[in-house]
Specification:
10 helices; 46% helix; alpha/beta; 211 residues; 8-stranded parallel beta sheet
């Protein structure tokens, strides 16, 4: 898949990490039903590989599905076997290269300018600024875009609706959102409330200018 193009089109990545595999699966399916086209299932969640496998079976091949928290080469291989289309990493570990070798584009975690340069040299699809909230939010994104005006940045970490709106306005290609969107749905909480949050975040994205 062309991950960068998908990020530019949809501008939102939902991050599902839960302690209940069945609830995590329900969360993934509900998000897709609400029009959140890009969903990653974090490997740090309970039975995450099984969730990816079950989601892939339920969604079919046409819906993009990512594996998050891909740290190692073994993580990348396991995610690929489970049916993930793309990989998301918190940093520049061995999983980045292996995922790309397996044909999975990577949204790679970076913070510093040095890491941005290293990630781009690896040929990753996009750059996940993580954790964005702890490094200054939209103001830090704006500062990074000074030396890297064309870099495909995707801020992640603490992005509630206001922060997501600010980051998109500051030039983010897309935003990645975990708990402010997922809430407790992946732990067995309300799917109805999840759907309401998904609609609000989709409104934020729809109102943002085209990157």
């Amino acid at each position: 898949m062309d991950l960068r193009a998908a990020l530019a089109t949809h501008r939102l990545v939902a991050i599902v990490r839960g302690d209940d595999a069945d609830a995590s699966l329900r969360t993934v399916l509900a998000l897709v039903e609400e029009g959140v086209a890009l969903v990653e299932v974090s490997l740090s969640g309970k039975d995450a590989l099984a969730v990816i496998e079950r989601a892939r079976h339920a969604l079919g091949p046409e819906h993009p599905l990512g594996a998050g928290t891909v740290l190692t080469a073994d993580d990348a291989r396991a995610a690929h076997r489970a049916g993930a289309d793309f990989a998301v990493t918190p940093g520049l570990g061995d999983g980045v290269v292996t995922a790309q070798e397996l044909g999975m584009p990577v949204l790679a975690g970076v913070v510093t300018p040095t890491e941005v340069i290293a990630a781009r040299a690896l040929g990753v699809a996009a750059l996940k600024i993580f954790p964005i909230a702890q490094f200054g939010g939209a103001a830090y994104l704006k500062a990074l875009r000074g030396p890297f005006p064309d870099a495909p940045f995707v801020p992640v970490g603490g992005a509630d609706e206001a922060a997501a709106r600010a980051c998109l306005a500051a030039g983010a290609l897309a935003v990645g959102v975990g708990s402010p969107l997922i809430g407790d749905a992946a732990d067995g909480g309300s799917i109805t409330a999840l759907r309401e949050r998904a609609r609000r975040f989709r409104t934020v994205v729809a109102e943002a200018a085209t990157p």
